[in-house]
Specification:
Layout: H1 6-12, H2 35-55, H3 86-98, H4 120-132, H5 143-159, E1 173-177, H6 180-199, E2 208-213, H7 219-226, E3 234-237, H8 249-261, E4 265-272, H9 284-291, E5 297-301, E6 326-329, H10 331-334, E7 342-346, H11 349-356, H12 387-422, E8 427-428, E9 437-442, H13 451-467, E10 474-478, E11 481-487, H14 495-513, H15 522-525, H16 527-545, H17 552-564
Parallel strand pairs: 2-3, 2-4, 4-5, 5-6
Antiparallel strand pairs: 1-7, 6-7, 8-9, 9-11, 10-11
The protein binds pyridoxal-5'-phosphate.
Length: 567
C-alpha cells in the first residue's frame, strides 16, 4: 500500500511546533483524512453555510468595499503551523472578513447577469463529489462515474425535450463540462478538424470562417480564437430591434455564400437560445436550413434558457434541434446544480473524439474497456470532476416536475415585474420579457432627448439602484440602447423581493430625474442612503448571527467606511 511521507513535511518546515494544535498537522498529528475529525469539522462547515443562508437576505447584495480591502487585512505569508482549531478560526475570518466583501450571488435580491442557482442537494452533491474525490478521465479510471454521466446526460436531455439524435440512446451523447465556453471550444475544434480533413489539410486554417450574431456571448469569439480561427474570419451578423435581436437566416445565408464565393470555408455557426443581453431565441430550424449543404457545424448555446426547455410550454424554443451538431446548457444557471455544470450534447461523438482524443496514453487504457466512453477524449483537459453525481442528485431529489415548478415561478415573477414597469409611464420595455429576464429603461421627460443622454440617465439609474444594496441588477446595450436587466432566477427569490426591487428602481428613478439629482454623480446623490443602508443591514446581520456580536474590526471598519464616504 502507498504511504504518505510525513517525515518530509516535518523535516522541511523549521518553524516551531504548536503545543496544542487541534487541527491535524502533517507529520505530527493524525492523517489528513480522518473520519472522526471530518465529521466534527464537517458539522462546523454545514452549520456555517446554513447560518449564512438563514441571514443572506439581510446583507447588502453588493459589498461596499474598495480594491485591496481584503489583502490589507490578511498576513503576507501562510502560517508555518496551524493555529489551535484552525478551521474554526478560519471560518470566523470567512464570516468577518470575507463575507462582507463578497457579492451575494444567492441573495434573493440578486438580479444581475443570470443567476447561478444553488440548492441543498446541489451543494451536498458537490460535497459528496469532493469527498469521494475521484478523477473519472476514462471509464476504467472510474466506471460508475463515467456511466452515471452517460445516464444523467440522457436523463437531462430527455427532460429538456432534446431530440434523440443528441442523446446516447439515439446515437449521440452528452458530457458534463464546467462552462459554456469550454463547450464552444471543444465543438469548434471538432468541427475544425473534420473540415480540414475534407478541404485539404492544415494549410486551409486561415480560410475557416465562423458565424454568430452581435448578441452572441463574447466567449464564442474567445473560443474561436483559441481554436486558431483568424479574428478577421469571425462574422458577427447584426441584429435589430424589429426582429427581437434574433439572428436572421437570410443574413446568415448571404454571409456564408459571400465567403464561399471568395474562396473561404464556412465552418461553424453559434446560434443562441436565450442571448445574454435580452434572452432572444435564434430560429434554429431556419438557421439550419440556411446553412444546409454548406457543411457548417451548427452549435446551440443555450447556457441560460436551455433550462426552460424542461417545461413543455417552452420546448418549442429548441424546435429544429434535430438538425444541429451540438447543444449546450448550464444547469448551474437555472436548474439548481451548483457551480459548475455545463451539459454538452453532440450528434456525432466520434467527431469530438477524433479531435480531442489521445492515443499515446496506453497507461490509462484498460484492455477490457475498448468500447466505452473515455470522457478525457471529449474535453480539453485530462483530469475532470465527478459532476454527474451532483446533477443526478438534483434530478432525483427535485424531479422533473419540481424543476418545472422552479422555472415557472421565476417566469411568473418576471411577468409581474414587466407589468409593474409597463404601468409606470416613465419607463419603457424595449423587448418583451423573456423567461425570467426583463429589460427596461427610463425615458427622459423630453421626447427629443438624444440617445446618449438617455443612456447616461439609465447608467446613473443602475448605479443608484445597486448602491442601495437592496437590489442588484446589470445592464446591456442593445441596438444602441442602454437597458437595465432584471434577471429573476435565484433559488431564494420570492415575489416580495421582486416587488421591493421595483420599489427601489422607482425611488431611484425619482432621484435621478429630479433637477437636483440630474447631473449629480449617483455616488454623491445616494451616499446617505447607501451608507445608512449598508450599516443597518450589516449591523442586523451581526446582531442576529455573529457571536461574539461585533468584533473590534467591524467597529473600526464601519467608522472607516463612514469616514471614507464623508458621513
Ligand atoms: N452563453 C450565454 C448565452 C451566456 O449567458 C453565458 C454567460 O452568462 C455564457 C455563454 C458563458 O457561460 P460560461 O461562463 O459557462 O462559459
Amino acid at each position: 500500500m502507498a504511504s504518505f511521507n510525513h517525515a518530509n513535511y516535518t523535516a522541511r518546515d523549521t518553524g516551531s511546533s504548536p503545543a496544542a494544535a487541534a487541527t491535524p498537522t502533517l507529520g505530527v498529528g493524525p492523517l489528513p483524512l480522518d473520519g472522526r475529525e471530518f465529521r466534527r469539522q464537517g458539522r462546523q462547515v454545514i452549520d456555517f453555510i446554513a447560518d449564512y443562508y438563514d441571514h443572506i437576505d439581510e446583507y447588502p447584495v453588493r459589498p461596499a468595499v474598495a480594491p485591496g480591502f481584503l489583502a490589507r487585512q490578511l498576513p503576507d505569508t501562510a502560517p508555518s503551523w496551524p493555529e489551535p482549531d484552525a478551521l474554526a478560526s478560519a471560518l470566523r475570518d470567512v464570516r468577518d472578513l470575507i463575507l462582507p466583501g463578497v457579492t451575494h450571488w444567492q441573495s434573493p435580491r440578486h438580479f444581475a447577469h443570470f443567476a447561478a442557482t444553488a440548492s441543498n442537494v446541489g451543494a451536498l452533491g458537490e460535497a459528496l463529489a469532493a469527498g469521494l474525490n475521484i478523477n473519472p478521465f476514462t471509464w476504467a479510471a472510474s466506471p460508475a462515474a463515467t456511466e452515471l454521466e452517460t445516464v444523467v446526460t440522457d436523463w437531462l436531455g430527455k427532460a429538456l425535450h432534446l431530440p434523440e439524435q443528441l442523446l446516447f440512446c439515439g446515437g449521440g451523447g452528452g458530457t458534463l463540462l464546467g462552462t459554456s465556453c469550454e463547450a464552444m471550444l471543444c465543438t469548434i475544434v471538432a468541427a475544425r478538424d473534420r473540415k480540414l480533413a475534407e478541404v485539404g489539410g492544415e494549410e486551409r486554417m486561415g480560410d475557416l470562417v465562423v458565424y454568430c450574431s452581435d448578441q452572441t456571448h463574447f466567449s464564442f469569439k474567445k473560443a474561436a480564437h483559441v481554436a486558431g480561427i483568424r479574428r478577421a474570419n469571425c462574422r458577427v451578423i447584426p441584429t435589430c430591434r424589429e426582429s427581437g435581436f434574433t439572428l436572421s437566416p437570410a443574413a446568415l445565408q448571404a454571409a456564408v455564400r459571400a465567403d464561399e464565393a471568395a474562396g473561404r470555408v464556412p465552418l461553424f455557426l453559434c446560434a443562441t437560445v436565450g442571448t445574454t443581453p435580452t434572452a432572444a431565441v435564434d430560429p434554429l430550424r431556419e438557421l439550419c436550413a440556411a446553412v444546409a449543404g454548406h457543411g457548417v457545424w451548427v452549435h446551440v448555446d443555450a447556457a441560460y434558457a436551455g433550462a426552460a426547455c424542461i417545461c413543455p410550454e417552452f420546448s418549442h424554443i429548441a424546435a429544429g434541434a434535430e438538425a444541429v451538431d451540438s447543444f449546450s446548457t448550464n444547469p448551474h444557471k437555472w436548474l439548481l446544480a451548483n457551480m459548475d455544470c455545463c451539459a454538452l450534447w453532440v450528434r456525432r461523438p466520434p467527431a469530438l473524439v477524433a479531435a480531442l482524443g489521445t492515443d499515446d496514453d496506453v497507461i490509462l487504457k484498460d484492455a477490457a474497456a475498448s468500447a466505452v466512453v473515455d470522457y478525457k477524449d471529449w474535453q480539453v483537459a485530462l483530469s475532470r470532476r465527478f459532476r454527474a453525481l451532483k446533477l443526478w442528485l438534483v434530478l432525483r431529489c427535485h424531479g422533473v416536475e419540481g424543476l418545472r415548478g422552479f422555472v415557472r415561478a421565476h417566469v411568473r415573477m418576471a411577468v409581474a415585474f414587466e407589468a409593474m414597469v409597463r404601468a409606470d409611464p416613465r419607463f419603457e420595455v424595449p423587448v418583451p420579457a423573456r423567461f425570467g429576464l426583463v429589460c427596461f429603461r427610463l425615458l427622459p421627460a423630453d421626447d427629443g432627448t438624444a440617445e446618449a443622454t438617455t443612456n447616461e440617465l439609465n447608467r446613473r439609474l443602475l448605479e443608484a439602484v445597486n448602491e442601495t444594496g437592496r437590489a442588484y441588477m446589470s445592464c446591456a446595450v442593445v441596438g444602441g440602447m442602454y437597458v437595465l436587466r432584471c434577471a429573476i432566477g435565484n433559488s431564494l427569490t420570492e415575489e416580495r423581493h421582486v416587488r421591493e426591487a421595483w420599489s427601489v428602481v422607482q425611488e431611484q428613478a425619482d432621484s435621478v430625474l429630479t433637477p437636483a439629482g440630474a447631473g449629480v454623480a449617483p455616488a454623491a446623490r445616494s451616499k446617505g442612503r447607501t451608507i445608512e443602508d449598508a450599516r443597518r443591514m450589516e449591523t442586523s446581520v451581526h446582531e442576529k448571527w455573529r457571536s461574539p456580536p461585533r468584533t473590534a474590526y467591524h467597529v473600526i471598519r464601519s467608522y472607516a467606511l463612514a469616514f471614507l464616504l464623508g458621513k
